[in-house]
Structures are given as structure tokens and as C-alpha cells.
Design goal:
2 domains; 1 helix; extended
Amino acid sequence: MTVAEYWEVGASGAVYDRRTLLDELERRFADPSYDPMDGLELTDFAVREAGPDVWLATYALRRATGTRGVSRSGDGPAATGSSSITRAR
């Protein structure tokens, strides 16, 4: 999220630019009671080398039973995600 061109796709399918994401994170973390993992379970976390100086982190994220799911596949309240990290030379 360090480059100005950063963007991401949310669970709803909406696309968010870097400034929007940073503003939202600032808003959320201004509340001392905010817990970003409240009601979530992270599993299947792995990091793999994707190329020279590039790493891919993958995971599965599941919401607690009884909350709105984030699955778009219809097979349960789960989402998968990934992030790549590139080391500057």
C-alpha cells in the first residue's frame, strides 16, 4: 500500500484507491475499541516466493457464524485473499 497507484477490491466487489483505504483505516483505528479481527478467523496462511524479491502471502478468512458472510461462491461465509510484497532494490 506504499505506492500511490495502490488499489484493492473489497469483499463487495467495489474497488478502493489508496487514499480511500488510508482514510478508512485512520477512521477505524481512531476508536480504541476497534479490533480488526473481531469475529474473524484466519486460516491457511502461507508465504511463498513468487519471483526475485517478490513474495506472495495467501490466506482464508472466515466470519463467525451468524454474521454476514463474505463468500461470493455461495458455499459458506469465507473469502480467500492474497498479497504480494516486493522488496525495493
